[in-house]
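Quick entry between incubations.
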Amino acid sequence: MRRIGVGLRPLLESVLAGLIGLGVGAIIMRAWGYNPWPAYMALFKESFGSGYGLANALANATPLILTALTFAVGARAGLFIIGAEGMMYMGAMAAVAASFFRLPSGWHALFALLGAALAGMVWGLIPAVLKAYRGVHEVISTIMFNWLAHFFAFYLVANVLVDPIRAEKTISVAKTSRLPILFRGTDLSFGIAVAVGLAFLFYLLLWHTVAGYEIRAAGANPHAARYGGVSPRRTVLLVFILGGMAAGLAGAVETMGRPPTYAVYSGLTNIAGFGFDGIGVAMIGRIHPLGIIPAAIFYGGLQAGARLMQMEAKVPFEMVRAVQGAIVLALALPELARLFRVFVRRARFQEKKT
Amino acid sequence: MAEFFLRAERLTKIYPDGTVALREVDLTVHPGEILGLLGENGAGKTTLTKILSGLLPPTSGRLLTPKGPIRFHSPKDALALGIGMVHQHFALVDTFTAVENVALGLGKLSFSELRARLKKLMEDTGLHVPLDVPVEKLAVGERQRVEILKILMREVRLLILDEPTSVLTPVETAELFKFLRNLRDRGTAVIFITHKLKEALAITDRIVVLRRGRVAGEAKTSEVSASELARLMVGAEVGLSRRALELSWEGIEREEEGTACQGEPSLVVENLRVRSDTGGLAVRGVSFAVYPGEIFGIAGVEGNGQTELVEAICGLRRPESGEIRLLGRNVTGLPPTALYRRGLAHIPEDRWKYGLILSFTVAENSILGRQRENAFQRAGFLRAWAMRAHAAKLVEKFGIQTAGISAPTKSLSGGNQQKLIAARELSKEPQVIVAAQPTRGLDIGAAQFIRDLLRQLRKEGRAVLLVSADLDEVLALSDRVAFMYEGTIVGEARPAELTPEKIGLLMGGVKVGSE
Ligand SMILES: Nc1ncnc2c1ncn2[C@@H]1O[C@H](COP(=O)(O)OP(=O)(O)OP(=O)(O)O)[C@@H](O)[C@H]1O
Ligand SMILES: [Mg+2]
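Done. Structure below.
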């Protein structure tokens, strides 16, 4: 276990936290007069009880893995990157825009993926430069850049990428640029391989390369890291580049691999939120690239199961959200507490440098 | 002595990773007695006292008060009983001032009242600190003093001090001792941990020696000799105990073999001026040169600019003006790694801040600063095998006690962490070594080992700049000693030329011509 950078203890902690969350959720449902048992049965039957449900859980998990990686790689360096949302929008825009080009099948998808990663990266680089050279706090700047991305994407969807026939959405991604669906009838696309593959790459990077060593050093003790030749500037830039790429790809898989429309709706309704959910997923996964994979699948499963929980157990949608919130919060809490301490220490270090 | 204050029975502590730190330890603490706790690095002293002060639960065994068994769930429970501990590492809030740190957890007192009481306590104890500067800007020794004051502000009935003197000057230590005797005479119990046998013999009434988690022996201080203690500490290993024995009697042995001031100087500092964190000039025009094959010592009461001087030389702090030349090249203002590549190594004074990344494994820490060297990476990938082999070598050569090179560094005892830093820095094969308090917190054997190593480096023609608050150490090791006072060097001499009176004057800032 030690080998992969975490011990057994966090796992046990997570299981315990999950059970506590389920307990709290049950108490909430009880208090409002709903029967928790059939509700939970419905929740998990839908998502993990059938191959079809599982495929949809995985489909939901795909973008979450990627945005969670953005947050995780930042957190490992002691940065609180809230900007996956905006980077993801830019990735989605690039992925759609790639369909203006004509390329052979497969190559076209690759081209679009690269374009999306690049778009996310460029978008991430601006707050990175502000942080590295001007000391602008990444929490502030990335939140601002989320809004900038939001309105910019809004504009692109309505004016530039708009579908000439159906004005409520962008053009659909060209057939040559779509990610193949792995199981007919589900939403599960080749995007899951991209996401899981990138998670493994991030793991390799963090624990087996010099760059990763330096990222982790800078996050754990910025003083000692600087003394050990780790440039804070380089670390910030690198982390945002990596994070921007991951989030950009999240936007790509959500458009290139999401039937039936393969497009972005005006108001960004079908892609909004993945960046923020990724933060929760990253914490459930203990900001570890490999921990993120099961965390995202679990989270995706909760989303997939929500429908059945409403229908079969007659639990209103708001209640479903509240119960899910309790579970996610319980799971994220241990890491949240730890990160908060790191964050405070880091803020002091910044303060001192200036 | 019928009445006791606290008794530990058959305490065993096994850490989650399986390290057995204590095995069935019995210990009795009497009121009005200063109890010395001795033992090598990693013997279990800190673990034992952490259990007594409620910071750690024992794996088995129990604590007893005269009223019966007791269990502490947190340090608060222990404090309620009057048990306070001053830690080997600091537990202060960095951004708070001394007054604010003391105020934490004291509750009701108003700030002015607190300040008045703190001032009085400083008079009584002889421990003086600046009250209104954030503690992160204080020197390590000053922070230690804040820790002690913080505990003493409460009504303690058992005061536990974990290596309090390792960062104090002899004068401060003497004052602290006076205060502790006073405290004892008023009926307070004291547990005093130290690596210095002389101190233990001077201040304690009874001594308990730990060895590898067991009580190796116990004696009344008046009935025991330093050599017996040394033997108890190290066990039957004859060579080491003989060495320790010599040391305990004669202090640190002196060897004259430096070939001072020959050839081109390796490290030149010229008219250096450095500001402290608070903005004032901490170093006011310091100049000196260190030659290959010599150990150049800097002595003086801590807080007179030594920290800032070392930080400037090692690239951690930008000097205001002046020049630093390393092996003939101007290196003023270069970052630490650039200096290291040019042949400088640095054993930093603040090991938790600059020396180590506590959450990293021993292996990862063993290459900090060298992670980009070809020996440890290929095409950007860490050569895990090479890193582990390197760490294993250091652990072996320096006798670092650890559960394994994959153990997180925070699980090492204080002395073993220090050994790891020294091992890493000296393994860089440096031409110039800047050693700030290199033996702080090390047991006799380990300290001797490091000193021997520094001498070995000198013999090989390398230059050593030694900055230490331990006057005995500076005088014994150095070929030349400079004394620092309020940011300037007030005198420089060969140790043999110095008399105790002269040293006293120099430490106090009185310039004495060394003709
Ligand atoms: N958190 C921990 N996890 C695992 N092992 C630990 C932990 N803390 C201490 N140890 C181990 O327990 C043993 C005793 O450590 P302890 O800190 O009590 O030694 P010590 O006598 O205070 O030494 P020193 O003089 O170096 O401070 C050591 O072998 C150490 O490696
Ligand atoms: Mg200790």
